[in-house]
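Exercise 7. Given the encoded structure of a 551-residue chain, write a plausible sequence.
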């Protein structure tokens, strides 16, 4: 046998084999057979992935720790068809009835289902401890939360968001979720409006209790927070104000929230709110969900949504819009690279955009919230922390620092004359300690006092002042120019402090303080930074459009 095997030879001819293979492929029947087999295999793989949410069924993935999917899953990861773009996640809103729920569960277009939870008989003498699916002002619903959850778990293919209409329903609902935690293999968002927003009433849900109970009873979720809102025929001047977003910021940090957070905002109030909301997202590492009320005017939302798409990365913004054309517009314009497609005011604001990387934070760092910056604005809350430009400049008529400051009275404290306000220092030789900055100080007081004076400098002291009537908005635009022999400080009182309106030309007459500098003050040939500092902690200062420009 061994001799026989040794005599066996294999004739390997690559060219001949390729020729034979080519003839087979050229055969019509063979070609049809291969196409049919490949098509069937492709369809089978597609159906398998579509119905199982991946190559491995979700039930199998649950058994593998590294692949386990649960209620805290990232929506964009859970639904790979989103392509990490929040605009590709489609929502079914107010699925509070059996009919709406079933339609959403078996719709191939829907990824996330939203529904409202309250107690049966909510707010009445007949209130029970049975959570039902309904939205206020209704006080009851036909579909119980138990049955609603049964259907969602059985489908196991849609994520869901529960909107709590009252705090009473929270604990009993979370207990039911916790009891069935192992069965929930889809993303879960838990939402409540916890702050008063534009035209909104007092919130029915206390933020502290809402977050504490969720952290204790069902922490594996995405936390969704929002503001109450209302409707009006003209909302062009309304917005999510700096006070509103700062209140939300402090809730997140006071409650030490470290889970994924989404802030829910109404589309009709976006026009003057994008910078505030972007600042909030940047400083809390969170995302945003834009929702639209059926009564809101679609036309006025279009430009605002484009502006938001321009500012927010695709993975940071979700959209629950009732108007299909607006949703399509958002998807088509999700990545806008040119301001030419936007309101002209956006481009004007971009030209004055704050650059955090051009500044250095200095002072005491014990209070983590004393200085909070993003590309949209910087918020100063303590006199012990200040900002210094990384670049330095010699006195030059072509160099100027300009910006806008909005004073917020968040502590309800009476201002101190000559001290409560913002200072801009030039020609500073020593600035390592916030109490002993040496230089020329340009001061804007919340009471309307404008001052240019020497501060801890050798030589002859000087001081020039002017007074303006403060506006109701407590908002000022300023320009500082150190021309060498003369320093020019220009301040304009703004009637409003809207984020885009400030970029428009205005007819207000500015106050101008020109000071001839003493020759012995020195520093003509030496480079110095610009310094911006809050002079006391009785106000919060929001600075935006803060730039150093060369003319």
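Solution.
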């Amino acid at each position: 046998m061994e001799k026989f095997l040794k005599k066996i030879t294999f004739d390997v001819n690559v060219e001949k084999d390729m020729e034979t293979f080519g003839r087979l492929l050229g055969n019509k029947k063979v070609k049809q057979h291969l196409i049919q087999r490949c098509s069937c295999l492709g369809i089978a793989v597609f159906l398998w992935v579509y119905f199982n949410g991946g190559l491995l069924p979700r039930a199998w993935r649950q058994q593998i720790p590294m692949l386990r999917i649960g209620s805290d899953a990232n929506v964009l990861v859970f639904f790979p068809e989103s392509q990490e773009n929040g605009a590709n996640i489609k929502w079914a809103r107010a699925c509070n009835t059996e009919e709406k729920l079933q339609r959403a569960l078996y719709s191939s277009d829907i990824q996330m289902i939203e529904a409202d939870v309250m107690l049966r008989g909510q707010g009445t003498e007949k209130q029970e401890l049975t959570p039902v699916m309904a939205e206020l002002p209704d006080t009851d619903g036909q579909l119980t939360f138990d049955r609603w959850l049964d259907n969602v778990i059985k489908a196991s293919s849609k994520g869901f968001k529960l909107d709590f209409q009252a705090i009473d329903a929270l604990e009993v609902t979370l207990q039911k979720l916790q009891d069935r935690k192992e069965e929930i293999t889809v993303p879960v968002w838990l939402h409540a409006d916890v702050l008063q927003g534009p035209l909104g009433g007092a919130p029915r849900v206390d933020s502290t209790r809402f977050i504490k109970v969720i952290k204790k009873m069902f922490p594996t979720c995405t936390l969704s927070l929002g503001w109450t809102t209302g409707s009006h025929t003209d909302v062009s001047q309304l917005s999510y104000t700096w006070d509103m977003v700062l209140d939300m910021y402090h809730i997140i940090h006071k409650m030490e929230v470290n889970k994924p957070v989404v802030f829910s905002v109404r589309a009709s109030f976006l026009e003057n709110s994008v910078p505030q909301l972007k600042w909030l997202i940047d400083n809390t590492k969170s995302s945003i969900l834009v929702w639209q009320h059926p009564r809101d005017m679609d036309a006025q939302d279009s430009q605002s949504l484009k502006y938001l798409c321009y500012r927010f990365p695709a993975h940071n913004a979700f959209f629950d819009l009732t108007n299909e054309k607006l949703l399509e517009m958002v998807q088509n314009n999700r990545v806008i690279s040119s301001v030419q497609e936007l309101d002209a005011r956006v481009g004007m604001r971009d030209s004055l955009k704050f650059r955090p990387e051009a500044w250095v934070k200095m002072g005491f760092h014990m209070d983590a919230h004393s200085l909070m910056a993003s590309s949209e604005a910087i918020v100063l809350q303590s006199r012990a922390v200040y900002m210094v430009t990384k670049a330095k400049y010699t006195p030059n008529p072509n160099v100027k620092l300009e910006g806008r400051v909005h004073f917020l009275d968040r502590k309800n404290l009476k201002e101190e004359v000559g001290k409560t306000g913002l200072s801009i220092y030039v020609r500073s030789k020593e600035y390592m300690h916030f109490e002993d900055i040496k230089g020329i100080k340009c001061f804007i007081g919340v009471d309307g006092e404008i001052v240019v004076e020497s501060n801890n400098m050798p030589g002859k002291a000087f001081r020039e002042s002017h007074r303006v009537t403060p506006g109701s908005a407590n908002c000022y635009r300023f320009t500082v120019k150190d021309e060498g022999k003369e320093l020019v400080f220009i301040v304009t009182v703004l009637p409003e402090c809207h984020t885009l309106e400030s970029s428009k030309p205005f007819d207000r007459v500015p106050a101008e303080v020109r000071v001839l500098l003493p020759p012995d003050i020195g520093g003509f040939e030496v480079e110095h930074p610009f310094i911006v500092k809050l002079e006391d902690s009785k106000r919060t200062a929001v600075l935006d459009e803060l730039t150093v420009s060369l003319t």
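Remark. The chain has a mean pLDDT of 87. Students should compare their own answers with the one above.
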